[in-house]
Amino acid sequence: MFIGDEARAAVSAAAATARLASLAAGGSLIWASHAAWAEGTAGIATAACPPRLVAVRSHGPARRGAVSRLILRWEAAAAGGQLFPVLDADITVVPDGEQATLIGLDGVYRTPPGAGLDPVLARQAAAATIGSFLGHIAGAITDPACGGDTGRAAVRPGTSAVSSP
Which pTM value belongs to this model? Predict the structure, then answer.
């Protein structure tokens, strides 16, 4: 399913891009991914052994004009051990005035193969996972002293639509 979300951070786009690069290089992006996966999938029992997030890959951010983009992929392992992509997304950093930035995520979120999840429940879990992830990222960009452990306190959620080199 296609999914998107955005949050507004009270920092310049240049600072946000630099902080996003630091998160990707320093491991906080991985921490935020695992935390969001746990939070978003906590209420879903897909099988006797639910899939777990095992790989987080990113590339960037790369800047084009005023917009920066980081490419992200999450992979999970099903009960049998086979890997499958769960999320392929772009995280964008777009100026919103001189001292504010919109941090967006647009991507494709996949449910585990053979999970047989109700489509409404799957969409709710995907939205919760992505919202949590974006909240962690935007919070860390807004207040880098917090590192990856930010929760969503520093972020005003926006709209929701239904480190490798």
Answer: 0.79
